[in-house]
């Protein structure tokens, strides 16, 4: 497994990171097998969050006895000092460790959320206190809006930043990644196959790995997935292949969706899961589970066109911070008969 230095943290990390969110779908015995296999194969970056069900507990039981072998990152989505402190302490207990290499302020997508965590009684104060006491090594931030993350990296000395990066969500390349690189911030690129969607898995992993990101973070739930991902990223991406992958990705981001999840649909359309894979689906098709998710939304597409509260200005578009023409995208899907 290739390794890199994670920016100004100085931590040596594997180019492939183990995303532990999907452990909540496994029993403890299988979680033990999968995560220990990942460590045996050379993965040294493990990422979880307090919000990921029982993921932290399963990790603690599975690999806490091998604590010196991996860099451990978890997250708090709490915004106040007291709540964040309680959650960080809980994470330490669940993970059966006395230190976190990285504590990330999680899912910060709006300016008011950032202001909240930076208040005198905000979550950042809790993270800083735990760092001063030796329970936290470095403080990072995560979010789904790269232009805001770019701004916040300039405002506070975060050591790491976690963001989407895939063929269908390359937006971090525009401003965020150059800024992080200039500040020597550790870059962790998540969702290289956009959750369960992109069918050309190897190419998708290598697209993300061809960037300046230090870690490509992939959610894994089986030994087969671990082995596949490791083999996919075994070799560095050469210039010729990088150009081919960039060409493959041309136009796949025209939907414009960042998956900030501030839109909603009263009809049950999963808007990010509709927009983000839309162009990719037309060109390459989706993984089976991704196609099933698409169809759940597609069942409601026709109703979207006649839903009275959305006739003049769709509710989802009013909520979208990017003012995307969401209903127009859904109409396009109907017109193109790609359902």
UniProtKB/TrEMBL annotation:
The lineage of its organism: Bacteria, Bacillati, Bacillota, Bacilli, Bacillales. This is Aldo/keto reductase. It comes from the Bacteria. Pfam families: Aldo_ket_red. Residues 16-249 form the NADP-dependent oxidoreductase domain.
């Amino acid at each position: 497994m290739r390794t890199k230095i994670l920016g100004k943290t100085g931590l040596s990390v594997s180019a492939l990171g183990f995303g532990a969110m999907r452990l909540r779908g496994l029993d403890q015995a299988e979680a033990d097998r999968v995560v220990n296999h990942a460590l045996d194969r050379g993965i040294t970056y493990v990422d979880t969050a307090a919000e990921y069900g029982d993921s932290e507990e399963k990790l603690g039981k599975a690999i806490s006895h091998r604590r010196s072998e991996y860099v451990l990152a978890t997250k708090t989505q709490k915004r106040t000092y007291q709540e964040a402190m309680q959650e960080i302490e809980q994470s330490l207990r669940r993970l059966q460790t006395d230190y976190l290499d990285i504590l990330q302020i999680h899912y910060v997508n709006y300016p008011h959320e950032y202001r909240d965590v930076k208040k005198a009684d905000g979550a950042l104060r809790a993270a800083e206190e735990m760092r001063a006491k030796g329970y936290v090594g470095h403080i990072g931030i995560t979010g789904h809006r790269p232009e805001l993350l770019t701004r916040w990296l300039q405002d506070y000395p975060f050591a790491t930043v976690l963001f989407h990066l895939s063929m269908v969500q390359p937006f971090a390349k525009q401003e965020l990644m150059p800024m992080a690189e200039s500040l020597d911030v550790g870059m962790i690129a998540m969702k290289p196959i956009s959750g369960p969607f992109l069918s050309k898995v190897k190419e998708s992993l290598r697209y993300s790995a061809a960037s300046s990101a230090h870690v490509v973070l992939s959610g894994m739930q089986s030994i087969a997935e671990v082995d596949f991902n490791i083999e996919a990223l075994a070799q560095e991406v050469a210039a010729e292949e990088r150009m081919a992958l960039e060409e493959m990705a041309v136009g796949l981001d025209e939907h414009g969706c960042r998956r900030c999840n501030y839109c909603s649909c009263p009809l049950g359309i999963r808007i990010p899961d509709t927009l983000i894979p839309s162009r990719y689906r037309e060109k390459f098709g989706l993984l089976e589970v991704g196609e099933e998710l698409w169809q759940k939304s597609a069942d409601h597409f026709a109703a979207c066109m006649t839903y009275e509260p959305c006739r003049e200005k769709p509710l989802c578009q009013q909520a979208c911070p990017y003012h995307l023409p969401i209903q127009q995208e859904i109409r396009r899907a109907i017109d193109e008969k790609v359902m």
